[in-house]
Write a structure and sequence with these properties.
- By secondary structure, the chain is mostly helical.
- The protein has one domain.
- Helix content is about 70%, strand content about 0%.
- The chain has 14 helices and no strands.
- Helix 8 packs parallel to helix 10.
- It is globular and about 65 Å long.
């Protein structure tokens, strides 16, 4: 069996994952002070859309990384290797933050009473199994891990999605037309569900979150298949204007709730555009600081809710009971800074070593073979 070449890295897509995680953090900081209308913080009252970006981006990246590999490996071998790699990516940090939440429930006075319905034995078991967002229960334990549960569901589906697409669509001489047709059906169905349920957003958590992840992940997957037809030719002024316009549209939807429905289409097109690794927007996002933020984004996302809740407990206890606006700004900044600090520690100390250890487990090297270089994070 030959080994497929590793797909090219796309630094700008790593960076926007970090920006999305930071947007979600500020969104949850805003929810701590919803009535105070804090300058800048209040701009991100729609910051939950960062999760929608995660879902679309995940479908795109899974296609980018695994399309070629699936053609080389048999279905069973590919599915097993894929699920092992994805579990290595998400589970160690999920388990670490879940156990940290248990510790807070047991030993931090005032933490558990704030969310009395979150912390049960049944919900703990579902969290261990990454099934907490599959419609059985509401928010629980480390609340933000709902999206990891939803994404794990799509990872389970992904090998079948890839197999079906390869069999029925990519083998057709009209594969691009079929992909566009599937995108139209997908978008139409998603809109119909949103309208029928009366949502003014893409769909919350729990069962709504499963709707959200399915349609957005598959959209990202399909966008990858037709990515070269979704933007003007790179290197032209039209390409630069197009990229800047997509950023502006996504920002408009993020900052003004009236245009929320524009966010996912704009982000999907922006992801396809950034996937070229060309243009001013891509270059700006490919700077080291932005890429580093993307590299620690999973840790940032998984720890920030706990950091914010510890702050809230201390505020309720009077330790951080500051009401003047300068104090509120300082508290907001400290929650973001401490979340970033936790991520900067967690990424090299928990996330990467655990992922690399799991990925090495079960792999045999021929006698005398050197240890292979560490793979880049995907």
């Amino acid at each position: 069996m030959s080994t497929p070449s590793r797909p090219d890295a796309i630094p700008a897509l790593t960076a926007i994952r970090g920006i999305a995680a930071l947007v979600v953090v500020v969104f949850h900081v805003h929810e701590t002070f919803p009535k105070d209308d804090l300058f800048v913080v209040s701009w991100f009252r729609n910051g939950g859309f960062g999760v929608d970006l995660f879902f679309v981006l995940s479908g795109f990246i899974m296609a980018h990384v695994y399309m070629r590999q699936s053609r080389v490996d048999g279905f069973a071998a590919f599915a097993t290797g894929f699920l092992k790699a994805r579990l290595a990516r998400i589970y160690p940090l999920h388990l670490a933050t879940l156990l940290a939440t248990v510790a807070l429930v047991l030993w931090l006075p005032g933490f558990a009473p704030r969310y009395q319905t979150y912390f049960g034995v049944d919900s703990f078991v579902l969290n261990l199994l990454l099934m907490q967002n599959w419609g059985f229960i509401g928010p629980s334990w480390n609340m933000v891990s709902w999206s990891i549960s939803a994404e794990w569901f799509m990872y389970l589906v992904f090998p079948l999605l890839l197999w079906a697409y390869a069999k029925r669509v990519s083998s057709s001489p009209r594969s691009k037309q079929l992909a566009f047709s599937l995108m139209a059906v997908l978008a139409g169905t998603y809109v119909a569900i949103i309208v029928s349920r009366g949502w003014n957003h893409y769909g919350g958590m729990s069962s709504g979150g499963m709707v959200r992840v399915f349609f957005e992940f598959v959209l990202g997957f399909l966008v990858y298949q037709v990515r070269d037809t979704l933007h003007p030719p790179p290197g032209t002024m039209r390409f630069e204007i197009y990229g800047a316009a997509l950023v502006a549209l996504a920002a408009l939807a993020l900052f003004d709730r009236r245009y929320w429905h524009v966010f996912v289409p704009a982000i999907a097109l922006l992801i396809a555009t950034l996937g070229t690794n060309r243009g001013a927007v891509s270059q700006a996002l490919s700077r080291r600081a932005a890429v580093y933020l993307g590299e620690i984004s999973f840790s940032l996302y998984m720890w920030h809710w706990l950091v914010i809740q510890i702050h809230n407990v201390l505020r309720d206890a009077g330790t951080l009971a500051v009401q003047d606006r300068a104090g509120l700004y300082l508290q907001s900044a400290s929650m973001v800074a401490l979340s970033l600090a936790a991520a900067a520690l967690s990424h090299p100390l928990i996330e990467k070593p655990a992922r690399e250890w799991i990925n090495r487990t079960g792999k045999r090297r021929p006698p005398g073979a050197r240890r292979p270089p560490r793979p880049q994070a995907s």
